Structure formats: C-alpha cells, structure tokens
Amino acid sequence: MNNASLTNKNSLARKLFALFTFLGCGVFALIAGILFLFSINFANIAVEKSMHGMAEDIPDTLHFDEQGKLNYSATNMAKKWGYDALFNNLAFKVTDSVSGEVLLTSNPHRATSAALLALPKDMPQGYSFLNGIDRYRLTADIDGTVLYVDLARDDMIGELANEAVLPMLGQVLTLTMVSAFLIFILVGYISIKAVVKPVNNVASQLDNIEPSQLDRRLDETGVPSEMLPLVNALNEAMDRVETGFNEQKRFVANAAHELKTPLAVLRTRLELANLPDKIGCELMGDINYMTRVVEQLLDLSRAQNQNSYLHKPVNISDVAKDVCMLLGPLTLTYKKDLALEELDKDAEVIGDQAALIIMLKNLLENALKHAEEGAQVIVEVAKDRISVKDSGPGINEEDRVKLFERFWRKEQSTLTGSGLGLAIVNEVVLAHNARIDVECKNDIGGATFHIYFYDKPY
Fold it and tell me: Domain HAMP: where (predicted)?
C-alpha cells in the first residue's frame, strides 16, 4: 500500500484503513469508558472487599470473660490503631442479636463517631451504604451467643484511596490505551497492506502487458481465493481479445492478399486498353495507390505477426546501407539528398532483419515523400539507436499524437500516402522492445525519428 493509494478517495486501501481506524476508535473508546467507570468505583470496590475481610476477622478477636463481659483482644496493632485512632472514620460495634444491646464498640465515645452513628439496630446483612457511610453486617456465634458484628467506614477513607490510586491508575490506563491504539493502527496498516498487495500485483501485471503481448496472461500463483475469479475472468477476457485480434489480422492479411491479383489484372488491362492519356494516367494513379495500400496492409500484417519473427543479432548499419541502396532511385524521383552517417559501424541489436528493413524503409519513404525538393534526408546509425531526420517542414506538435494511427494523413483529401507507413514502423518497434521518439523540429529544420533498442525483444 503506497501513499498514492491512501490519497485516492476511491482507493480500496483507503476505505479499509478508514474503516479499520473508525472501528478501532470506537472499540478503544468503549474500552476506555468501561475502564473509566471501573476506576471511579475502584476505591469503593476495594474498600467493600476489605471490609468483608475485616468483618470476618473481628469475631476471631472476641470472647466473653468470666463476668460475661465481651472483650476485644486484637493482637494486630495496626488493626487496633485503625479502629481507635483513624479520625473515627473506621469503626465497629457488636450487638446482641436477640436483645439488641450494644456489647462492644471500637470507640467508647459513640456519640462523637459518625461511623458508629451510621450503624442502626435494623441494618441489613452484608454490605450496605447510607448517607455517605459504607456498612457491613456479619452474624457470628461467640461462646453460644449469636452476635451482630457491624463495621462502618465513612467517605474520607474512600476519598483518600481515590486521591492516592486514581491519578496513578489514570496515567497507567492512558499510557496503556494510547500505546495499544497505536499498535492497533500499525497492525491494521500492515494487514491492509498485505490484503491490497495481491491487487497491486495483478494491476502491475496488467500494466506490463503491451498491445503486442496479447498472448500473456495473469499469473494465478499466490492470488487469494477471493480474487481468483476476477483474475480468471480477466484471463478469459484476454483470450477473447487475442482471438478477435488474430481474426482481424488474418482477415486484413487475407483481404490484402486476395486484392493483389485483381489489381494486377486491372493494371494489365488498363495498359492494354486504348484510353485517352489523361484518363489512363488518372486510372493508373488510382491503381498504384490501391496497390500501395494493399502492399502496406500486408506489411502491417507481417509486422503484427511476431511468431514469424526470427530474432538474432543484426548489424543495423548493414540494414541502413541496404535500405538506402533500395530507395536510392527515389531520391532522384523526389529530387532529395540522401546521406548515411555511421557513428558506430559495429552497432548490433537483437531483432528480425526483414522487419527492421521494412521499418527503416517506411521511415525513409515518409521523409522522402513529405520533404520539399532539394531537402536533406539523413540516416544516422549509433550504438543501440538508428535515426532518420530531414530538413523538411517538420511536424506540428498537435499532430504528434496522431502520427502512428492507421490511415491517418495530414492531408486526408489527397492520395499521397496510405497512412499506414508509421503504423507499420510502430508495430515493428513494439515487437523489438524498442522505443520511438519524435523530434518535431531538429537542427536542420525538419523532423527526426529516433529508434532506441534495448537488450532483448519481447
């Protein structure tokens, strides 16, 4: 998951991360609320438990003496001090369960102890709370006499506990919650990244499939089962596209091939017919144009049929020489100057020699036809590069994107070309894993086409 995924509002990764964060905030807010409520009652819960324990300990320290008086003999000085001297906030009394007589109190000055005053005769068993006083009643059998042991605590101890415990507890809880939330977000980010990674891998594979690689398919290795139907559907769609594209190529090749014979017959009959010179020339020009279109359709079909390519080391300097010699007569016809500049005579590339000849031939024909009379056309060969430049009118920037479209011509109303030459060039370039750059205005005034070759063809 990259930064672009998180910034795109329609990104699945962004939506998952937002949902994950929203749910995380909700869950941690709920946990924080529960812990807050628990922390509020923490001191009361702690005191209630401690009161229960102390109330159970008190009967162990009670006994009747020989005169029948109930005595409290705590050996634990901390307990005795706590009952007698802690600001009268913690106190107990023992009463007879039958007569209701108070037999013993932790503070002899009962009237001054708010805790003792909060212990009435009709107090319920167990824990209770009244007027800010925590109370606890326990029934005990001391030497055959059933007694009520009542324990009381007012809120001062609770407040002391809250003041001592809650700040520290709050800090610990805050630190714990923040750390846990950050870890939660980090785990969520890593998890979403792992979930989205297969999608990115599939998208990367799709991006790397060029129009000339319709036989390639998406790799199903490591694809999650939830995404497998999508990958299979894409592969099946590419099967249909490849089948349709191959049928289209076969149709074009077959149609062009079938048209060659009728055009040749028509040319022969026209040459033998006794027609006026003007009409004969016009008809012959039309036949030549149609013948040229058919030939280039066949060239385009061959350029697209990469299965027929024979890739091997090819000296592009030799290819340039062959093409220049082949088109040499056209320089006289079009009154242009053709030159070959070899910057590297041993420039070799991996490719199909016949296809490279067709590519360079179309580039040169295009330059010779469209440059003005007396213009210069230069073929330049360097390591891993071949360029064709001219001193013609150049190319308009707005026409650059249309150059390699099939049947596109700058002057659509004229029959000066078929509009297939640069489309054939582009197909050969793609088949050789090469790149074509167009320089609309070069140093001699015209346009330059640069073909850059890489190590291996597709």
Answer: 193-246
